[in-house]
Amino acid sequence: GENVEQHPSTLSVQEGDSAVIKCTYSDSASNYFPWYKQELGKRPQLIIDIRSNVGEKKDQRIAVTLNKTAKHFSLHITETQPEDSAVYFCASEFGNEKLTFGTGTRLTIIP
Amino acid sequence: GAVVSQHPSRVICKSGTSVKIECRSLDFQATTMFWYRQFPKQSLMLMATSNEGSKATYEQGVEKDKFLINHASLTLSTLTVTSAHPEDSSFYICSAIDTTGSYEQYFGPGTRLTVT
Fold it and tell me: Of A5, B11, B19, B105, which has the fewest Cβ atoms less than 10 A away?
């Protein structure tokens, strides 16, 4: 089955700086890659996603890049703010809408 | 966006008892729903795929006789944890796919199960 690795597990950045989280996947058939933000005790919230026919997607301060050849994708958050502090999960979908999640990154924004 | 609800949000039960968790899509029909389990400081692990009108599909290592799933309507799936034990204590999250719209997967707010 699909395996998704995510790094780093924890990340602390100064407010205003950029944060980058990286994921790799194993199944070359995967074609959908969402990123979720989860606050403590709450549901995951979709923040951005990308499909395999696109190399990059941006939404204001958030961007995702995909390298299909290398089977990795990354989340980029610019001009970080304290409210960006949360756990972020990448995921991949390889069929039947089933998502395989990465292990998560705890992002802390230092004021 | 679409809304998925779960009930209850928190439940405490004694070891050996059964607990039912409901997952509802409030403003769309969902032929497919998913059940995840999330232990503290860990990722979401898919337990099973709930299919309306047919048997659920369980992931490897998940006991189908312990985690009973029923998807009797296009807006409701239930997960029953039978003979619960302390190791079943976890955060259970469902999701539903809007198959008539965006095909985005919408997550419920989760149910915190504590087995004493």
Answer: A5
Which distant-in-sequence residues (6+ apart) come within 8 Å of A33 by Cβ?
A23, A25, A49, A50, A51, A52, A64, A66, A73, A90, A91, A92, A93
pLDDT digits (tens, 9 = 90+) for A8-24: 999 999 999 999 999 99
Does position B102 have pLDDT exceeding 80, yes or no? no
C-alpha distances (whole Å) from A52 to each of A28, A47, A77 are 10, 17, 21
Question: Which chain A residues are within 8 Å of B104, Cβ to Cβ?
Answer: 46
CB-based contact A41 B49, cutoff 8 Å: no
Order of strands across the sheet that contains B76-81: B4-7, B19-25, B76-81, B67-73
Q: Which residues of A touch B112 (CB under 8 A)?
A: 41
Identity of the amino acid at B65: D
Question: How many other CB atoms are found less than 10 A from the CB of residue B80?
Answer: 14
